[in-house]
Amino acid sequence: MKKEFVVIGLGRFGGSIVRELIEQGMDVMAIDKFEDKIDQFANIATHAVMADSTDESVLRSLGIRNFDHVIVAIGDDIQASILTTLMLKEIGVKKITVKAQNDYHEKVLRRIGADKVVHPERDMGKRIAHNIVSNNVLDYLELSDEHSIVEIVANDHLIGNTIIGLDIRAQYGINIVAIKRKDDIIVSPQATDEIQKEDILIVIGADTDINRFEKKVMQSS
Amino acid sequence: MKKEFVVIGLGRFGGSIVRELIEQGMDVMAIDKFEDKIDQFANIATHAVMADSTDESVLRSLGIRNFDHVIVAIGDDIQASILTTLMLKEIGVKKITVKAQNDYHEKVLRRIGADKVVHPERDMGKRIAHNIVSNNVLDYLELSDEHSIVEIVANDHLIGNTIIGLDIRAQYGINIVAIKRKDDIIVSPQATDEIQKEDILIVIGADTDINRFEKKVMQSS
Ligand SMILES: Nc1ncnc2c1ncn2[C@@H]1O[C@H](COP(=O)(O)OP(=O)(O)OP(=O)(O)O)[C@@H](O)[C@H]1O
Ligand SMILES: Nc1ncnc2c1ncn2[C@@H]1O[C@H](COP(=O)(O)OP(=O)(O)OP(=O)(O)O)[C@@H](O)[C@H]1O
Ligand SMILES: [Ca+2]
Ligand SMILES: [Ca+2]
Ligand SMILES: [Ca+2]
Ligand SMILES: [Ca+2]
């Protein structure tokens, strides 16, 4: 069953959502008030419609009500973002995700019934800062406030050692869930597997334990 | 050894980087050309300086050269972003990360020597679209073009079964690396562990295999 989405606002964030939803085989109606955006998405989205989303009659005439999920990706015009969300809610849209510009904006959006509120720039800033601090960490997934899965580049201190030899689990309380070696992913590596040059270790554990391990890895590089 | 960073441009993205770097214990000089931004970050950053980064004499007088890493988070003014990057490079800054607005912008930045170019809105759009498509998937980490680690909400079809009983590894070729249960993270769950209501499964595998598993999980919910 193909899901049907509406994306309102085709800036970098909204535009990227349209592309990815289409790539995943979804139906997407893309809406923007500027013609150049509509031209840009005419061949990408299932439908591209030039409309001002703060005009309720327009929203109704497009049959927005019948879509599964509407994403409001309007940026600088906070008033338009709030008004659009309010009307989508009144029309009876089942699921509404909205991009917020700040905490105050988020508060208003939640009060009027937005199901999900996202802060793309803020979240990505956090992510990138995290990756920047330690050069060995490539990417990560936060499992909870205290646990993460982290990609760590193996350095000279680790290369040539076996997993059991490094005694990582006992020494740091973390586990290597996989090793990225060139184009391969080695899931659940054996304790006797030797770490090679350019390996990327995918480790899981408490943030404090992972940090301790990162420090150790960095120190000696 | 405390690392020293400069962040130029205190919009949502740049501002979030400043906050996160400070939280991680780093030294951060925050620069913006608008006074209200400087007021906002005066008590957050190590130093907050009002300056136009396209003015080379200003950059030199601030001793930018001696910092470990400069992040250029200027948005709409692409010309200022490019000019700033060019001068940072000429001054001899070791590491420069720049936010790009589009592919053309990225191309120019790389040509003039930016070490890392990021597209926060685009990347987060992709991420959020991915999470939106399947309601059961909460978050994910791409390990390669073909492999990921994904957080999947357990549904009625899974609850009450043991991992060995579901035969997930043989049936789908994926592994459960952890289970998120309320505030706990159970790393490397036992084959005989029973999946409980509201469990979140952290699985690793090929995207095609994970998709197959997701479909199965969703179908029957
Ligand atoms: N009332 C409206 N109806 C339809 N589209 C709108 C409306 N208001 C704004 N938009 C569109 O929303 C898009 C995103 O807005 P804007 O460029 O302000 O956001 P942004 O946060 O700077 O974007 P980015 O995702 O690139 O960071 C623009 O293309 C704009 O034309
Ligand atoms: N030449 C410059 N020197 C210093 N700061 C600058 C310069 N040009 C722009 N800035 C600052 O960069 C910040 C970010 O720019 P802008 O708001 O255009 O980006 P944006 O991409 O919309 O931001 P966001 O991260 O919120 O999406 C602004 O606070 C702006 O004042
Ligand atoms: Ca903007
Ligand atoms: Ca933006
Ligand atoms: Ca954390
Ligand atoms: Ca992928």
Ligands bound, unique: adenosine-5'-triphosphate, calcium ion
Greatest interface and its residue counts?
A: A-B, 54 and 54 residues
Q: How would you name the CATH homologous superfamily of the largest domain in chain A? A: NAD(P)-binding Rossmann-like Domain
Q: Identify the quaternary structure here.
A: homodimer
Major sheet of chain A: 6 strands, parallel
Q: Indicate the CATH architecture of the largest domain in chain A.
A: 3-Layer(aba) Sandwich
Strand content of chain A: 25-35%
Query: Looking across the biggest beta sheet of chain A, what order are the strands in?
Result: 3-2-1-4-5-6
Helices and strands of chain A, in order, run as EHEHEHEHEHEHEEHHEEEH
Descriptive overview:
Two copies of one chain form a homodimer. Chain A has 221 residues and is of the alpha/beta class. Chain A has helices at 12-23, 35-41, 56-61, 78-91, 103-111, 120-133, 163-166, 168-172, 207-219; strands at 4-8, 27-32, 47-50, 69-72, 96-99, 116-118, 137-142, 147-153, 175-181, 184-187, 200-206. The radius of gyration of chain A is 23 Å and the shape is elongated. Chains A, B: One of its GO terms (biological process) is potassium ion transport.
Question: What order do the helices and strands come in, and which of them pair?
Answer:
The structure is a homodimer of 221-residue chains.
Chain A: E1 4-8, H1 12-23, E2 27-32, H2 35-41, E3 47-50, H3 56-61, E4 69-72, H4 78-91, E5 96-99, H5 103-111, E6 116-118, H6 120-133, E7 137-142, E8 147-153, H7 163-166, H8 168-172, E9 175-181, E10 184-187, E11 200-206, H9 207-219
Parallel strand pairs in A: 1-2, 1-4, 2-3, 4-5, 5-6
Antiparallel strand pairs in A: 7-8, 8-11, 9-10, 9-11
The structure holds adenosine-5'-triphosphate (2 copies) and calcium ion (CA) (4 copies).
One calcium ion (CA) binds at residues 142, 145, 148, 207 of chain A.
Domain RCK C-terminal (chains A, B): 135-219
Pfam families (chains A, B): TrkA_C, TrkA_N
InterPro entries (chains A, B): NAD(P)-bd_dom_sf, RCK_C, RCK_C_sf, RCK_N, Trk_Ktr_HKT_K-transport
